[in-house]
Amino acid sequence: MYPAIIEDYQRPESLQEAVAILSGYEPGDAIFMAGGQSVMQAMKSRMVRPRCVVDLQSIAELKGISSANGLHIGAMTRYVEIAGAVELAGANAALRDAAQHVGDRQVRNRGTIGGSCCWNYVASCMPAVTLGLGAIFHLLDPQGKTRAVQADDFFLGPLETARGDHELLTHLSFETTPRSGSAYKKWGLVTDALPVVGVCLKLSLDAAGRCSAVRMSLSGLPAGAQRAPAGEAALMGSDGSRESVARAMEAVVDSVECHSDKWADAHYRQQLIRTLGQEVAATAFARARGEQ
Amino acid sequence: MELKDQIRINAPRERVFAALNDPAILKQAIPGCESLEATSPTDFTAVVAARIGPLAARFTGSVSLADIEAPVRYTLSGEGKGGPAGFAKVKASVELEEDGAATLLGYSVKADIGGKLGQLGGSIVDRTAQKLAGEFFQQFDALIAAPAEATDDAGDSKPVVMAQPPARGVGPVWWGVAAMIALLLAWMALK
Amino acid sequence: MKTVSITINGERYEETVPARMLLVDFIREKCALTGTHVACTYEGVCGACTVQLDGEAIKSCMMLAVQADGHAVTTVEGLARGAELTPLQQAFKAHHGLQCGFCTPGILMNMSEFLEKNPDPTDEEIRHGLVGNLCRCTGYVHIVDAVRAAAAQIRRGS
Amino acid sequence: MSAKPDDRGSWMGTRLPRKEDLRLITGQGKYVADIVLPGMLHAVFVRSDYAHARLVNVDVSAALEAPGVVAVITGEEMKSHCRSLRQPVLLPNLPAKYPTYYGLAVDKVKFHGDPVAMVIARDKYQAVDAAELVVVDYEELPVVLDPEAALDADAPRVHDEEADNLMFEMTFTGGGTDEERAKNEAEVEKIFQSADVVVKGRFRVHRTGTTPMETRGVLAEWSASDGLTVYNTTQRPHIDRLAFADILDIPAEKARVIAPRDMGGGFGLKAPFYRESVVVAYACRKLGRPVRWIESRYESLMNIGQERGQINTLEVAASKDGKLLALRNRGIADVGTGQIGVYWGFVMPFLGAVEMPNAYTWEAGDTNLKVIFTNKACLTPSRAFGHFPTRFAMERAVDMVARKIGMEPSDLRRRNLVPRLPYTSVTGEYYDSGDFLKVWDNLMVQVDLPAFRKEQAEARAQGRYLGIGFGCGVELSGVASELMVPMENQPGYGAATVRIDPRGKVFIMGGDAPGGQGHETTISQIVAATFGISPEDTIITTGDTGTTPFGSGTIGARMGSYFASAVRKACDELREKITHVLAHDLGIRATMEEFAFTEGEVVYQRDPSKRKGFREIAERIVMFPINLPEGEVGGLETTAFFEAAKPMICFNADACVVEVELATGQFKVLRWQTSEDVGNVINPMIVDGQMQGAIIQGLSNAIFEEFIYNDQGQQMTADFEHYKLATAADVPDVKVTYASTPCPHTPLGTRGIGEGRPSAVPGALCNALVDALAPFDIDITELPIRPSVLWQKLKAAGAV
Questions:
Q1: Greater confidence, B142 or D50?
Q2: C101 touches chain D (CB under 8 A)
Q3: Interface contact D26-C35, CB threshold 8 A
Q4: CATH 3.10.20.30 fits C2-78, yes or no
Q5: B184 close contact with A: CB closer than 8 A
Q6: Could you say which of B83, B84, B114 has the minimum Cβ distance to residue D712?
Q7: pTM for the whole structure
Q8: Burial of A8 (C-beta count, 10 Å sphere; 0-12/13-18/19+)
Q9: Which residues span the domain enclosing D407?
Q10: CA neighbor of D330 nearest in space, from D384, D267, D393, D238
């Protein structure tokens, strides 16, 4: 189908120009277009009917991965670039795990990390992964003011984020902690489908090889991207043994709300949390130990 | 979709029932409510501008009341139309029970959505509806419980919003409307 | 209405179009290049409309024409040079990689970029690369055969 | 890459690359959506949001005012200006309730997606804008969705004019009278009473179908002199033409239907006559301008392509040494509204019931089918027409017997395959020819079961669960008039016109309308082989009722059986004429058999110096028709018809190997191996492709796809995010092998293949899963089979 009438299309070339255009509209009347792989679905089904589309493609500052001074990823950095970025190792390797399996090649050639996080669809990978990695979201407002929002505060629930109506997400920054590893894995009925359940785990090891810091997040559940604090607590001090991971995932299963739908019932989702948890834990520990 | 819960409101039963019949309160408590009008003693229409994240829509709902047994219980049925998006149908019952100075408000809602709204609503319908119902109650509780708390010297006082006496016969429209908005939002919340 | 200039298969098209026009409609209706197909509604899942935007495979139904202003698009009509088919096109013919042909242009546009990035793919990589293109006729078997054969042919040629 | 004729110079049996491909791989294909006519308008349907509701009012005033809008058509207008779709040409000769319905809904909407109005605008975007402005006032009615509950006396009725929701009921065994059937039932019961082993299952198959990548499309134009021309995505243009004429009340000579040469798959979905086509055709006549409707995927998934949808309660009696004795089945098909012309939803389950006994010998059978209306989209034909569910039930039941008596399922199958043909099944289906055992034995050679059992045991010792599953299927090879006339009120014969031009080029015209099966190539090989010319020198035209002989369409594997045979017959008639003239010119007395058509020449075999180029003799007969043998006239063109006296079949057998992960129930199909009897193969590459595609469709149906209605009758799977098709990464490679027996009833020994091919798949798949999990003794009787379901079963069995 076809989008409803769009009165105006703008393609700003600077950040300031972009936020200025948006601020000229009532909230919701103008939207930023990043890769468009979600927004176009919403526009074509006419769930979203913007008066103005502000296309971010020409703003160079929004693009690319930089590890010069901590890890920064521009909001308009595409999945294809993240999937192939060798610098995303160890603590941030989960970004690659996710980006390699979002949608399909064509989607990965257009879709962006910032677009996905700002859309915050209920079942999607990037919100859960950036949450699991503890990303910081950098926002710019029309007055030129910037603010940094922790991932825990950025995602407010499906389709809602802390981004203000007239704010632009410019980039995300990530910690590059040593002796750390992360991993993400999802399951869907067909290959690379939206997650029925996905698990992201990031951990740091102490000198004895035990977990000294953990973040865990889930995708695919009705709450949208969410932390799994019970699992995190249970994994602290773990050496990565299957038993310790199993205990942690059981704690997760006990503490989160799973739902039933046509792809899987709630019990099966719980089982996926258990099995995916084991897989991502094995990978994350290996990465933290420098084995991968 | 079915929602069922019981919540405790810090106000006596009569007062809760009256507030549920007060369009001004309801209008404030319903997220995004633009208007709330009685078209007959038992029929009401509401226009709600709902918004979630990047999505926005205006939604027209109509609600009819039945089995009114003040201040104890009533049932309602409602229908909301989202234009080409589809429709929502709601059947609900509410029961108020005294719990000391407070009131236990029990409700059960069955809602069905149709058209694109339902097809694209997917599994997040319940969640969104619950969230909105939660928002409503939070606001509702804040609106009607505040005076009682103030007289109890129970810490920070909240502004008293109850501005006018309940209009006669205006029923608890929030039900249908809240659930319908929830459904509409669920529809929009899909990619 | 917006005036856009899009280079398609090396030819520049300047047209004034509504902002809401999809790129795929621009290609099919404004440029009369009907090799690019549409097979889903709003979901953008089937991949039949895949073209290359500045050399990368994308779904032209998931983009507005105005977004492609100033860019270069390649469609299936732009693959062959005159009568000379590309190795991938030849392989699809030789290995019966198509039946009804409706999904084929999208697959060719996706796989020709895929093979540039990964000239020596495993079958598993080919299949993973094809996830964004639904085919209902072939069961994918001969498509995988064709892509594998084309990869070998391209490697031999270079 | 180009194939060559075989040693004898024949193109038959060679892997000739397809003639169709060049245009399709270069973007030059012309599908219906690619056809643009001057002044063309765009149509969009407004469809019901409700599954069952009275139409109180349809207000089109705002839509009419919208920019670009030319007209809005409603059901009332269709009813007053056109006949209903309940026309004799579209009605089977079977006793069923046939609802009266029109191009658009009148009075009532009966399923979610029922068309209520059609908006026509100059621009397709504007047409969608305006469709949003049509305001429909519905009075909701209670829905009936469960086919079993639909038979309750107080169930809401889908069609007000009918007494109940039972559309069709038939018993397929025992004979024609109630008395005979009762006697048969008693006899079957006696076998069940005394049998060593009885298995019983309630086998439920969900709604799923074949979903071609190209949706439907209709482009209609009207001219006062020529009447109606419709470009329609149809598999049967000649039947459509009659239907258009009858419904729109147009003289039949003023109706022409053209199925575009390129059609993006059909698989049966494009075989019915659809109501949307009528509205588009009506609108173009009313407006005097071309009108085009291209179906959206959303509409397609809501309206068509839904098949399967049966519950079969099947019992099988067997002896303890593995002889199948009797079957008893009670089938229920959920047909939806039944409002789709030609098939009416029930013809598929009807044939499915007929085909239930499959390739096995039975002493007796007792089968009954009830087809029931519900507030859902009408079932439409899909490849494996009706018997995907019955075969799933049968192939599972056979394995259940094998397990019960401790026999290898493959051994049990072989023991019960019909050993000699012809044979008539307990439901009266005639199996003409072939060799089932040869096909089976070839499969077992490919599979090497002892080696697999060893691999399986070793894997199991390591905690890996491998399983093997078998299935087989008798499929119709085309449909003879004997079956087509009662079933679809249409002839089964194949028809072909063959014309040779003065340059020796051969034109073939057929009334069928292919959608990717490679007719142009296959026919060119037959013609090339028959005339000893190159396939390049042939031109095939299909789909245009204005230029092709009457035919029932591309349905039911008619290509290799009926169309190919008609082409061959026509070619032979022309060979007869050519050799007759040539013998006359050479001054010899010779019969056709004494000439060879080879390498572009016609050679007198007793004296090869006596020969003439094919082109030269063609030119002589077409252009210089003088000095001809007595009684002969010039010209080289003929139309031939082929009809088989009895239905014909093909046969196939499948084996697959799966691996299941206990912890999640996730499984992978590791190998898929087939053995086929397709008669003489014209182009093995094309046949391989047909088989592979069919098998993957079957897998995708069995695992991923499902049309879901919620408890309000809302269709919840109307896009590809919700209706999941298998991607390339989800399915295995498929190895196709042949153990063919030439068909004695076709001139080339060919059989039609491909239509029924997916039906052996779900049984084989589920048998493999059950085999892999044999230690836990689970069973599968319902589809779709998904990891979550398998895991629940494993959990219930205490495996995890």
A1: D50
A2: yes
A3: yes
A4: yes
A5: no
A6: B114
A7: 0.95
A8: middle
A9: 307-480+646-796
A10: D393
pLDDT digits (tens, 9 = 90+) for C64-98: 999 999 999 999 999 999 889 999 999 999 999 99
Testing the interface with B: which of D109, D134, D137, D714 to mutate, by most B Cβ within 10 A? D714
**How would DSSP label each residue in D756-796?**
SGGGGHHHHHHHHHHHHTGGGT----BSS--HHHHHHHHHH
Same domain, D471 and D328: yes
Mark yes or no for CB contact A41/C56 under 8 Å: no
Q: Which helix (H) or strand (E) holds A219?
A: strand A211-219
Of how many residues is chain B composed?
191
pLDDT band at B25 (very low <50, low <70, confident <90, very high): confident
Q: How many domains does chain B have?
A: 1
d(CA A61, CA D613): 73
Q: Is the pLDDT of residue D123 over 90?
A: yes
* Residue pLDDT, tens place only, D466-500: 999 999 999 999 999 998 999 989 999 999 999 99
Closest approach of chain C CAs to the CA of D734, in angstroms?
A: 7
Residue of D nearest to B111 (CA): D712
Chain A residues within 8 A of B190 when measuring between CB atoms: 42, 47, 121-122
Q: How many CB atoms lie within 10 A of CB D798?
A: 8
Q: Which of C103, C141, C143, C153 to mutate to test the interface with D (most CBs of D within 10 A)?
A: C141
Residues of D in contact with B84 (CB under 8 A): 131-132
Quote the minimal CA–CA distance from A14 to chain C in Å. 16
Q: Tell me, yes or no, if B113 comes closer than 8 A to chain A by beta carbon.
A: no
pLDDT of B21 above 80: no
Chain D residue with Cα closest to C141? D733
pLDDT for B50 equals 65
pLDDT in tens, D160-177: 999 999 999 999 999 889
pLDDT, average across residues D504-524: 95
In a domain, D760, yes or no: yes
User: Does residue A246 lie within any of the structural domains?
Assistant: yes
Position D510 scores a pLDDT of: 95
Whether residue A69 is contained in a domain is answered as: yes
Chain A CB contacts of D704 under 8 Å are: 189-190
D598: left (phi over 0), alpha (psi -120 to 50) or beta: beta
Q: Do residue D788 and residue A194 have CB atoms under 8 angstroms apart?
A: no
Eight-class DSSP state of D544? B
CB contacts of D293 in chain C (<8 Å) are none
What pLDDT is attached to residue A12? 98
Q: CATH number of the domain that B18 lies in?
A: 3.30.530.20
Instruction: Please indicate whether, in this complex, the C-beta atoms of A223 and B127 are within 8 angstroms of each other.
Output: yes
D38 — contact with chain C (CB < 8 Å)? no
The SS3 of residue B101 is coil
Q: Considering only CA atoms, which of D506, D496, D499, D500 is closest in space to residue D548?
A: D496
A167 & A70 share domain: yes
Report whether pLDDT(B17) > 90: no
Beta bridge partners of D252: none
Q: Alpha-carbon distance B48 to C24, whole Å? A: 36
Residues of chain B with C-beta less than 8 angstroms from the C-beta of A222: 123-124, 126-127
Is the Cβ pair D264, C46 closer than 8 Å? no
The answer on D394 and D377 residing in a single domain is: yes
- Give the length of chain D: 800
In this complex, do A106 and C129 lie within 8 Å of one another by their Cβ atoms? no
Question: Please, what is the average pLDDT of chain D?
Answer: 96
Residue B181: pLDDT band (50, 70, 90) is low
**Banded model confidence at residue B156, pLDDT cuts 50, 70, 90:** very low
Range(s) of the domain holding residue A20: 8-49
Q: Are B87 and B79 in contact (CB under 8 A)?
A: yes
Per the model's pLDDT, the better-predicted residue between B28 and D191 turns out to be: D191
Domain annotation covers residue D160 = no
Query: Is residue A68 pLDDT above 70, yes or no?
Result: yes
ipTM, two decimals, is 0.94
